[in-house]
Design goal:
Blueprint (H helix, E strand, L loop, with lengths): L2 E6 L8 H14 L1 E5 L4 H13 L4 E6 L1 H11 L5 E6 L5 H5 L6 H8 L4 E13 L2 E7 L2 E4 L1 H9 L3 H7 L1 H16 L6 E5 L2 E5 L1 E5 L23 E5 L4 H13 L9 E5 L4 E13 L2 E21 L15 E2 L8
Helix pairs in contact: 1-5, 2-3, 6-8, 7-8
Length: 327
Amino acid sequence: MPSAVLIANPSASQFTGGMYRRVTQILARSYDLDTEWPVSARETERIAEASARNGVDAVFAMGGDGVAHHVANGLAGTSTALGLVPAGTTNVLARILGITQKPIKAVEAANQWEPQPTRMGRVAAETPLGTIERFAAFSIGIGFDADVVEMAETRPFAKVRFGSLHFASTAIGRLLSNWRSEHPNLRMTCDGDRFDAVAALTQIHDPYTYFGRFPLRLLPDPPGGIATMAADDLGVARATEILSRAAVGLRPRTSIGVRVWSCYRELTVEAEPRTPFQADGELLGYASHIVITPVEDAILVLRPQTDSTPPPDDEAGAEDSSGGDPA
């Protein structure tokens, strides 16, 4: 019988004792199962790393995107598969990979799935505390997006209770009070192309589904790889247009100071002053130099064979962005 470890976060919004017991019962049908209750993010990652070193076949992350992020960082580059038991508020990674938002159904399905090689993004940054290297499973934010994450975390109970609505209200507040008059402080270089920006968002998979039934697309067609959008201004009108076009799947207009790169080899950012950056909704710090590289087949994940967003009733190189859709 294959082996598995279940790492649970009891503070996740959907977590209950009854659900946990049911999940362990289901997993025990297919695995020689051990369970772990880490008390910190770093301990979560250490347990995942140790499991991989010991040859465990799969590590299941029961909770939200935070526990999934830390387990994934412990497993990246190993032959141990990541299993997702979505018990958080938004469960972005599960949505993106086509895994049901219902924890019991998700773990029942995982018992039938084969591990699938899955893309991640590697971010390396120079910070006042030294070089930070992390893997991102679904997103990397530089500037505005990371600032919103930092502010949203100051109200953890609102985050648990309201999820993406809390994030959206925080984003609107930060945009109106701080970011609408910011000037570009990011020199971005991607495969020889340069652009000065105030903020950038990288999506590892298409589409980006933080807002559940309303996915955001940086390009109208799936790029088949990592993609990054950067903007040189976040005034209210500019931000509204960028968001509305992403929501309906239209190309952003380069004429309004937006650049999108996709399927690139490497993207670098020089920031003056230092800028906040995040991966998978986890604030990583403030950096003066950031390098993003896509890593195909970085991790094995127990998931459907093709990336697909679950149906709504399941709820509980540089691109030329000036062509295509009319302005």
